[in-house]
Amino acid sequence: MTDYKLINNENSRRYEFQIDGFIPKIEYILSENGEIYLTHTEVPPALEGKGIASQLVLKVLQDIEHKNLRLVPLCPFVAGYIQKHPEWKKLIMRGVRVE
């Protein structure tokens, strides 16, 4: 699988990859308190089934960890990824449960 470059598009409040004219993305809300709410993951239909969403989530989680942000995973895909990879639960803001 190709290793895509993560772009933090702060103006659009989303993390994204740029792949052959398509933009897989994870939208977020960043609070002034150091909390990041991941709200929506979207992969264009032409790119589905290639593991791109999982790679995107992984790189976003790595960036969140690097920036010492507290995560609130509102997006079901992100929450599901964390359930499958519990080592990332350490980023989740205290008091937030991932089901």
From TrEMBL:
<dbReference type="Pfam" id="PF14542">
    <property type="entry name" value="Acetyltransf_CG"/>
</dbReference>
<protein>
    <recommendedName>
        <fullName>N-acetyltransferase domain-containing protein</fullName>
    </recommendedName>
</protein>
<dbReference type="InterPro" id="IPR016181">
    <property type="entry name" value="Acyl_CoA_acyltransferase"/>
</dbReference>
<dbReference type="InterPro" id="IPR031165">
    <property type="entry name" value="GNAT_YJDJ"/>
</dbReference>
<dbReference type="InterPro" id="IPR045057">
    <property type="entry name" value="Gcn5-rel_NAT"/>
</dbReference>
<feature type="domain" description="N-acetyltransferase">
    <location>
        <begin position="7"/>
        <end position="93"/>
    </location>
</feature>
